[in-house]
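Think of the structure tokens as a kind of shorthand, similar to the way a musician reads notation: each symbol stands for something richer, in this case the local conformation of the backbone. In the example below we present two proteins back to back. Begin with the first one, reading the sequence and then the tokens, and try to describe in your own words what changes along the chain.
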Amino acid sequence: ANEAFAAQKFSQAAQFYEDALRADPKNTSALVGLGYSRQRENKLDEAEAALKKCLGIAPDNEVAAFHLGVTHFKQQR
């Protein structure tokens, strides 16, 4: 997933992150990756959902909080 993201294949990266989440639904790294991938695809509602889920599991996750803030900014909220 990280390699696909680095290659700017955001849709493919999101699929890989979703695969990881099926195996471990509380994988915060995969949730952040999914959220950021969806943000880069401009699928902001999906990005917000993944990032909020991550913060529900790990409220102190600064990366998730940052990307959620960027997502809200892009949503003009």
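Once you have a description of the first chain, move to the second and do the same.
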Amino acid sequence: MSSSICRPETPLELRNAIGAWFDTPLGLALQAREAAALREVLPQLFGACALQLGRPGRIDLLDASAVPRRFVIDVAASPGAQLSALPEALPFEHKSIDLALLPHTLDFAIDPHQVVREVHRVLTPEGHAVILGFNPWSLWGLWRLWYRGRGVVPWCGHFLALTRIKDWLTLLDFEIVQGSLLFYRPPLQHERSMERLQFMERTGDRWWPLGAGTYLIVAKKRVPGLTPLRLSGQRKRLMGRPLTQPVTRA
């Protein structure tokens, strides 16, 4: 597992540094692109309760979700976050969450593999995990080689390869059902330069598909030997499942 050398080192200070970076022109542009991709994915995922692990920026990334009950947890009380907890120790019971959104959560987690295990624990059978992460094999990865030693967000993050994430998910009996690569422009903070390079977003999928700055993965939790039942519309309305209320974990 990669070790993070982010400075500042405490979870609260790191969370504030992440939020500050996502408020920069580059961070806002990345959020907008990822939010647009989520608006294409989330309406297809259903359930009673959705959980977002961390709120890196100001954009509501769950706004397109059809799930009626939504929780956002963060390491500190931040705008839009209802609960304070670490992603490695989620304050939810087993099999109580239908949809888990991880917006760069693994990039900055203390133990990203443990986060994936926790997500598996709280997800219901056939529940979905949606993961956004930085792609190390990209122009963003090259920038990281230069800035990582300075402990600057986001370059001090883990930048986990897609292959590693897929291995973790497969070991936990997840099935990857969808994926996409996003944001082909280099990580420049100059807004005019970014506007001139907008053409890279239109041609990236065709000419350099593996060079995107971030990736999006949708994985479904499978339970061996379980055959999901399809309920009629009337039975779905009648069979409401009570939701276990979360309790903040230190």
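Compare your description with these statements about the second chain. The beta strands are 49-53, 69-74, 83-84, 97-103, 123-134, 174-182, 214-221.
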